Structures are given as C-alpha cells and as structure tokens.
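Record 1 of the preview.
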Amino acid sequence: QVRLVESGGGSVQSGGSLRLSCQFDLDDYAIGWFRQAPGKEREAVATISPSATATNYADSVRGRFTISRDNAKKTVYLQMNSLKAEDTAVYYCGVLGYWGQGTQVTVSS
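->
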C-alpha cells in the first residue's frame, strides 16, 4: 500500500499563487500531479523523475507551474503561479496507480 497525502489547496483570486505539497512513502519512483475539474476527466499536470532531474508539464500549465521534490522530506511540491479560473479542480498526486485524497484548488476570476 502506498500512502500519499496532499495539502496546500485553497481559494485564490485569478493571478494568485498556491503551493501544493504531497507527502509520499515510496522511494525511487516518478511522481505526478494530476487534477480533475467537475464533469471532466482526470488529467496529468506535471511529473518529476525520482532524482528530480527530469520534469514534464501539460501545455496548459507550462511556464506557470513548477514541480519539485525533496526526497529527504519525502515531499513533492507544485508551485502554481498566475492561476486562472480554469485551474480550478481537485489536485491529486499519484504514483503507480495510487492516489492521495486530493486537495481542492478554487480560482475566482
């Protein structure tokens, strides 16, 4: 069983910033941030390699979001800047098909 715990969501106005955190207990795997908006499929937002040497971003967030990880703290972060209303969703971290409970991000225009 893999344990993933997200935190850091909240409500912010358009143009604002939030930082999400995901605590994990599984070493040596790539971890991703995903999001699901009401009525939509879950989509990948960003992924990071085990050693943090490689990252990937969805086109919709590239240049605004930054994924990072601190393996000593077993935490993956998602820094979200220049937030837009369309970023509103429940954000999850995931690895190997396991998911956390999610954290709500609401951006008001």
